[in-house]
Amino acid sequence: MSTRAGFVALIGEPNAGKSTLLNRMVGAKVSIVTHKVQTTRARIRGVAIEGEAQIVFVDTPGLFLPRRRLDRAMVAAAWSGAADADVVVLMVEAHRGISEGVERILEGLADIGKGRKIALAINKIDRVEAPVLLGLTKSLNERYDFVETFLISAEKGHGVDTLRTWLAGELPEGPWLYPEDQIADLPMRMIAAEMTREKLTLRLHQELPYQLTVETTDWVERKDGSARVDQVVYVVRDGHKGILLGHKGETIKQVSKASREELQEFLGRPIHLFLQVKVRSGWLDEAERYSEMGLNFKDGNA
Q1: Which DSSP string corresponds to 195-250?
Q2: What domains sit in the chain, N to C, each tagged with a CATH number?
Q3: What is the pTM of this model?
Q4: Helix, strand or coil for residue 94?
Q5: pLDDT tens digits for the chain (302 residues)?
Q6: Distances 114 to 91, 108, 168, 229, 286 between C-alpha atoms, Å
Q7: Could you tell me the sign of the dihedral formed by the alpha carbons of 50, 84, 179, 5, in that order?
Q8: Distance (Å, rounded) from C-alpha 37 to C-alpha 74?
Q9: Strand order in the sheet with 212-221
Q10: Which is nearest to 98 in space by CA: 145, 152, 139, 148?
Q11: Cα 31 to Cα 42: distance, rounded to the nearest angstrom
Q12: How many CB atoms sit inside 10 A of residue 27's CB?
């Protein structure tokens, strides 16, 4: 039997469940998952094996109406990821239906859809009754000619295996693109930074806006098999630094502990994590910060 390999882009509105689906497909946590929208900034590739096929997932930032440079760069990255993929899966939340955001995405599909297989995955199907689900499926397929439609729950796993099997069969024949044991093509430094950013997002909820970023500044392998990892959290205001640190530094300590434990579990070895918080008011306009997030700074131009 010949092998297959190719890229699958997951697109949709923020919080549509793309990262949750990616993590379930891959079988490991490679994409940041929080209750907040717009948390995925870079195109994170996760690699899944299905039979003789290697599926390389591109988890794109959510598609939304951009207002700032960072927003515009994220949206450009999402459409670029879709345009470069062999198969595109549009994810729509069952309970939200066809929102203005979904309407905009359907319009955008016309530009990238020529010669490309685009499937529909209606997610969170447990949140609506069957008649609503059937009506939504019909309406979406009337608006765009999807090659297949899948009804899934990324969180609970319903329908995910069926979708993965179908994707494997749609990829072009050819050799695998990554080693069999590799689950992501992101540098470990970026994965570690994303883990810490997720912990910050979960811990701070509504207290802190999205104007923070995490960079892994140093990674030193030790002879005993452990590693020292240094990270900097950049915020734009002094007030944000105080919120991040918390009373007597308790907040940043808890974030550091949670991130270190997850990183240790992910790597299967001891990690010594050290976090610093720095105020850098203009980081949203620095090209270097965008490169660290896997985004193109120029795509943020108005």
Answers
A1: HHHHHHHHHHTTSS-S-EEEEEEEEEE-TTS-EEEEEEEEESSHHHHHHHH-GGGH
A2: 4-170 (3.40.50.300), 188-300 (3.30.300.20)
A3: 0.61
A4: coil
A5: 689 998 888 888 877 888 889 888 887 665 544 444 444 445 556 788 888 998 888 766 555 444 556 556 655 565 565 667 788 899 999 999 898 888 888 887 877 766 678 999 999 999 999 999 999 999 999 999 999 999 999 999 999 999 999 999 999 999 988 777 665 555 677 778 888 988 888 887 655 545 678 888 888 888 898 889 999 998 888 888 888 888 888 889 999 999 999 888 877 889 999 999 988 876 666 676 566 556 655 655 54
A6: 19, 12, 21, 45, 35
A7: positive
A8: 13
A9: 212-221, 227-235, 271-279
A10: 139
A11: 10
A12: 11
Question: Which amino acid is it at 200?
Answer: L
Tokens representing 255 are 């974030």
